[in-house]
Amino acid sequence: MSGHAAVTFARVPIAVEAPQLSQSAEANLLWRVRGKMLATTVRQSLETARLRVTLVILLSLLFWYGLFGLFSGGFEFLESTIGDKVTHAQTVQAIYNVFFASLMMMLMFSSAIILYGGLYCSSEAEFLLTTPVRPERIVLHKFQEAIVFSSWGFLLLGSPMLVAHGFQTGAPWYYFALLLPFMAAFIYIPGGIGAVLCMVFVHRLARIRRHFFAGFILLAVVAVVLLCWSLLEKTEANLLTPIWFQEILGRLQFSEHRMLPSWWLSSGLLEAARTDSAGASWAESLLFLSLLISNGLLLRMLVVELGARIYRVSYSELRTDRARRRPSKRFWIDQLVMRCSWLLSPQLRLLIVKDLRLFRRDPVQWSQFIIFFGLLALYFANIRRFSYDVNYTAWVNMISFLNLAVVGLILSTFTTRFIFPMLSLEGRRFWILSMLPVERDSILWGKFVFAAAGSAIPCCLLILLSDAMLSISPLVMAIHQLVCALLCIGLSGIAVGLGAKMPDLREESPSKIAAGFGGTLSLVISAMYIILIVLLTALPTHFYLSALQSDGDPYWVHIWLLAGTASACAVGLFATLVPMAIGLRAFRALEF
Amino acid sequence: MIQFEHVTRRYGTKIAVSDLSLEIPSGELFAFLGPNGAGKTTTIKMIVGLLRPSSGTIRLCGHDIAENNSAANRLLGYVPDVPYLYDKLSGVEFLQFIGEMYGLHHRDLKARIGQQIDDFRLHDFVEDLTESYSHGMKQRLAFAAAMLHDPKVLVIDEPMVGLDPRSVRLVKDLLRVKAAAGQTIFMSTHLLSIAEEIADRVGIVAHGQLKFLGTLDELREALSTHETSLEHLYLSFTAGDEDNLPRDRRPSSPRDETYIEGRQP
To answer: How many angstroms separate the CA of residue B69 from the nearest CA in chain A?
Structure first.
C-alpha cells in the first residue's frame, strides 16, 4: 500500500470475552483429552492387534530380563575381580556416576530435540496457539510428552541395572520402592534443562542460529575429544589390577562433581542400597531424593515461566526469520549414487536418491548420525591408548566383538528411529508414488537398499578402524566385516519389513511412530538379532584364537568357526528375508 | 471488528505483507483475494496470533493481538484450510473439548453442540473417530468447532475446499446469517464466485500490498470498465503474478501498481 497517507483508526471499545479457564481447569482439560486418546489407542490395539501387543510386551520383558542378566553378571564379575571392598564400592559408585552422567546428557539433548519438534513443528501446537489456551500450558503439555518420549529408553536401560545391583547387594525393600521416584525425579532435570535450552536457543538466537549451532557443536566435540583423551591416556599399571582400577577411577572423578544431578541420583540410590546402617542411609537417601525433586520442580517452574514469556514470540520468530532456502538441484553424492547403482532399475535408483535427499535435508537425522558414529570413531581411534595389552588375545577378541555389538546396537536405534517410520511417513504423499510407474515392491526394496547400503559403508569403515587399532588378524577382520555387513542388512530388513507391516499412516512425527508398538517390536527384535549374530561368531573366534595361542590347532575349532559363520549368515538371511516378505505382502495389500 | 494499522511482516529480507492498513467493521463479510504467495495466509496467521507483525498493530475487538493474544483468541473462531483434529477423538468429543476450552458451561455446551450438529449435518459421523473422516467431513466439523462459542470474529482460510455442493451452499448461507447477526468474517479464498456472491467487500492483495479495497461495484468503477465478472477484474489487478501464463491468456489491462480504495461501506 505505497504512497498514501498514514492511517489511524479510532479505538473501539474492548469487547468482553468469555472468562479464561483457570490454570487447573486448563490442565485438567488437556489431561482429559490425552487420557481419552490414550484409552482409545489402547482399546483399538487390544481389539485389532491383541497378538501384536502380547508379542511386544513379551519381547520387551525378555529384553529387560536379558539386560538384567547382563548387569547381574557384570556386578558379580566386579565383586569377584576386585577383592578390596573399598575399591569395589568406589568402582560401583564410579560406574553409576558415569552411567547416569552419560544418560543425563543424552536425555537433555533428546528432550530438547523432541520438544523442538513438538513446540515449533507440530500441527497440534499450531492449533492450540490459535485457541485461548495459555502458551505456558502448551509448553507444559508438550514438555510432558517430550519427557515421556525421551525417557523410555532410560527406564528400559536403567531399571535392569538398578534392580540387578539391588539383588546383588541384598538391598532393603525401600531401595526397590525408591527406584521409580528417583528415576522420575531425575528425568525431569535433564528434560527441564533441555526444554529451557530449546526455547532460549530458538528465541534469543534465531537470527544467528546456524552460526551458533555450528559453534556449539564444535565446542561440544572439542570437549568430548579432550575428555576422551584424558580418560584413555595409557596407564602405567597392569590391566585389572587394584592400581589400574584406582587410576581409572581417578580419571572418572569429573562425574562425581557435587553439582551434578547424576551424582545425586547415584548417591541416593547407593545410600538406599546400603545394609550396614539402615536408618541413616534411609534418611540420607531421602535427602538426595528431595534434592532431585526440588530441582526438578524449580526447572519446571522455569519452563512454565519461559513458556509464558517467550514461546509465542519465538514461534513467530522461527517461522519468519528467513526466506525459503532453495536447495541445489544437483549434488555430487546423488550423481555418485546414480552411477554406482547402475545395476538397479532407473526407478529404484531414483527412489534411493529421493530418500538420500530427504535424509540430507533433515538435520535431526544427519546430526544424530554424525554425533553417535563420530563419537564411536573417536573411541576406536583412541582404543590403543587404553592400557590393553594387544597380545592378550582373549581380551582383544572380546573388545573387538563388543565394539561390533555396540556399532550394531547404535545402528539398531537409528534403523528403528529413522528407517522404521519411513514408510509410515510416505502415507500422506503416497499418491505421488502411486502415480509413478513403479511397482510397490520396488518402493520397499528401494528403502531397503538405501538403508542397508547407507549403514554398511560407515559401519564397516568403523569396524575396520577398530580392528586396525587392535591389530586384529586378517581372518578375524574378514569375519568382522562379514558380521558387520550381516548386521546392516538384517537390521535394515527388520526395520523396513516391520515398518511396512505395521505402518502408522496418520502420524506425522517419526519419534512417535518409532515409540509405538511396531517401533518397540523392531527395536527388541533388532537387539536380539545383534546378540545372536555376535555370539554365533564371537565364541568360535574366541576358541579358535585361544587354540592358536596354545599352539594347538584342532580340526573341531575350524569346523566350529565355519559352522558359526555359516549359522550367522543363515540367521542374517532369515532376519532379512522373512521381515521383508511379511512387509512386502502387507504393503501390496495396503490401502491408502 | 478487525483493525490493521500499518502492518508489515517480513520473512528475512522478503516482505510478505507491506504496510497493510485496513478496518473490517462488525457485521461485515470481507473476502481477501490474491494469487499464491501474495500474503493472504501470512495475514491470517497474524490475525489468529501465530505470527507477530514486524511492525504495526492488529486489533481484534479492541485487543492488541501481540499484547493480549489470549483475550483476542477468546473472541475468535478460526477455520484453517487444513483443519487439525485429534484423530483419536470422536467428533462429539472434539466439540466438547473446544467448548470447554472456551469456558462454555455443561448445559449450554450440550445445547450448542446439538445446534452445530444440526447446522452442519454431522449426525451420520459425529460419534466416529475423526481419523475416519474425509476432508469434507473434517472441514464441516472444523466449522462447527469454530462457531461453537459464537465468536465475534470468524477467520476462514479457503472455506470451501473439500466441501460438497450442498455443504458449500450451507456454509455460504450460514456465513451470511452470521454476518447479518453482527459477526465479523474475514475470509481468504481463491474462489472468486464465492467472494462475488457473499462478500460485502473485497480486498485484493498482490506482492504483499493491498491493491484494491472496496465493493465489487467500486472495483468496476475504479477500473472504468463495464466488465461484470470479478474474475476479469481480479486478473487485472494481479496481472504481474501470472507472467507464467501463455501470452494469449494474460489479462489485457496494464499492471496497476497504485492502491485503489473504494468507498467504505
So the answer is: 8
